[in-house]
Each structure stands twice: as structure tokens, then as C-alpha cells.
Amino acid sequence: MIEASCHCGNISLKASKLLDTVTSCNCSNCYRIGALWAYYTADQVVITERVKSNIYLWGNKLRSYHNCTNCGCTTHYTQLRDDGTNRVAINTRMENPELFKAIPIRYFDGAGSFKYITKKIT
Ligand SMILES: [Zn+2]
Fold first, then answer.
1. Cα 13 to ligand 1 centroid, rounded to whole Å
2. Based on C-alpha coordinates, what's the Rg of the chain?
């Protein structure tokens, strides 16, 4: 069981499995957050909010970025994808860092080509 939570604990997420990779995206929002995303489908994640999260939408408004109204951490985003699946992207920065020492980071060029790239672009 993988557990994530914002700093104050208002928002917590549980997922049943650790993924093989996490994704760093350099789009204007993800870059600021510094998130490392792990992509799940909605049925793989249990989300608990003691206080309802704030939702931030921008650009094409396809992704709902959830952040804590108390501590400000962006814990996850949700997205209805073109293939009909509901994505829940957990910000693995909200998880125990020991879990991610050995997991490769993939770099997504969300600011440019919108493709995975081999090296980080800052
Ligand atoms: Zn919080």
C-alpha cells in the first residue's frame, strides 16, 4: 500500500501498488510545483479529504490540480482522458522519499514537444 498526504494531513491518498517510473513535467504549472507524478486510474486510488481541497484549473482546463487549503501542498490531479479513463496523478513528493530512491524519473516536455524526452529540460 502506497500512502501520500499533504504536509498537514488534510488530504491523503492510498494506492495499491508502487509504479515502475514517475514523471517530471516541465510545463508552467508542474515546473512550479516540482511534482513527480505517478499515474493511476481512479479505481486504483482512495482519496480522503478532511477539508475539501482547492481545485486549480488552467490552460485547456482538462486537469484539476488539487491542493490543500491549509498547507498549500498540491497532492494530485484528476483528469478525464480522451480514452475515457479517469486519471489520478499522485504527486509522489507527498510520499515517503525512501520509496522513490530506486525508481527512475521520466521527463515529459509539457512546455514544448509534449513528448517524453531523455533528459531534463529546465
Ligand atoms: Zn494540508
1. 12
2. 14
Dist. CA 11 → ligand 1 center (Å): 6
Backbone φ and ψ for 112, nearest 5 degrees, come out as -135, -95
Q: Select 2-117's CATH number: 3.30.930.10, 3.40.140.10, 2.170.150.70, 3.40.50.800.
A: 2.170.150.70
Q: Give the residues across from 68 on adjacent strands.
A: none
Rounded to the nearest angstrom, the distance between the alpha carbon of 53 and the centre of ligand 1 is 9
pLDDT tens for each residue of the chain, 122 residues long: 899 999 999 999 999 888 999 999 999 999 999 999 999 999 999 999 999 999 999 888 889 999 999 999 999 999 988 888 899 999 999 998 888 788 999 999 999 999 999 877 66
